[in-house]
Amino acid sequence: xxxxxKLLKRHPCGDGLRQRTxxxxxxxCEMVKLESGDLLHEANAPLDAMYLVVGGRLRVxxxxxxxxxxxxxxxxxxxxxxxxxxxxxxxxxxxxxAEEPSALVKIDRDLFLKTSRQSYRFRLNVLQxxxxxxxxx
Length: 137
Prior knowledge:
This protein is of the alpha+beta class. It has five helices and ten strands. 36% of the residues lie in helices and 35% in strands.
């Protein structure tokens, strides 16, 4: 848990959060390690978690209905993947692959919703991450 706590503190999503809030997230989140080429999410599949990128680089592609790449960008340390799609019950047209060895903190929907209800600052941090992602697209 201490490794997750340390990584959460360094990620923008953890900015300004109380120690108690960070500990609750660290207790319930999951560390995910990917090697180059590992698939994190296949387009048109449901997505039930948000991933905070704490190391490495992810290649994210928007896939159209003809399975063609429409747009592509990279998420690096300090970024996120899945926040918008996670909050809906719809499938996501984003395809996400590790471009290099990567470390992620996985926050599932239940933990996200619980923390969002309890922490105004967490909600603000997630909105800022979403804004940053949209600007990259």
